Amino acid sequence: MFMVSYEKGKLSQNTLVIRKKTTALPPVLIKKIPSKRPKEERPVIQVKNLVKKYDDTFAVNKISFEVKKGEIFGILGPNGAGKTTTLEIIETILSKTEGKVLVDGLDIDIYQNQIKSLIGIQLQTAGFYPNLTLVEQLELFADIYNVNIKPLAVLKTVNLVDKAKSRVDQLSGGQKQRFSIATTLVADPTIIFLDEPTTGLDPQARRNLWEMILDLKKKGKTIVLTTHYMDEAEQLCDRVAIMDAGKILEINTAENFIKELLARGFKKEQSTLGASLEDVFLDLTGKNWRD
Question: With a threshold of 0.70, does the pTM exceed it?
Fold first, then answer.
């Protein structure tokens, strides 16, 4: 027969003593193995007390946030809130006044070239060469990044194969936005920055672009986007930072933001129809890619 007991005052709290009851054998010590906690993955982007100041004006005023790997993180705010300035600092395009920014653990003040190899930045139309076709534009970007690509395969991801020989100025607004996202994929970045990607697009183009952004997330990309469309942030983003006048007011999921507002007693008349005029428009006209 064996007896298991704790020896108080002689052994540590995590030590068991096993003795055979009928003998005077010395105790056998068995150490408890502490359970290992799962290692938390490092945030892909870490922003701490970031400041951007122009003379006496704060464009960004001591903001802090983190972006997790594989999420869509949205910065929601009105024009002039500081959204684009924040993105351009993280992208190493714009210098900061104060604070610390890490991208995949790399300090933007020290490792700018390494960071640029990790990220994809959506260009505006003005950033493209007017006389080149879409295929030629992509080949130019591939040369800049020193990578080999299949231009038609890249265009296929944004449903623009039939426009391969067209120039950018021959594209519709939605096609231009899709092509601008295609250029971010040339170097196969792990982090993609989209600055108000659906501004000025019609409902079909917006919804189609949403689907494309969600597909990029499924492929393991981390996406940071700015928007001033509430429904866009609600549909796309895993978490949202609400920003105004250079400051981040709060960060949460869209669902939790709404629950907290309702818990504070907020009420408004709700539509009992179960659909919107935009839903009617999309149902009548279709949600397929449009030229």
Answer: yes
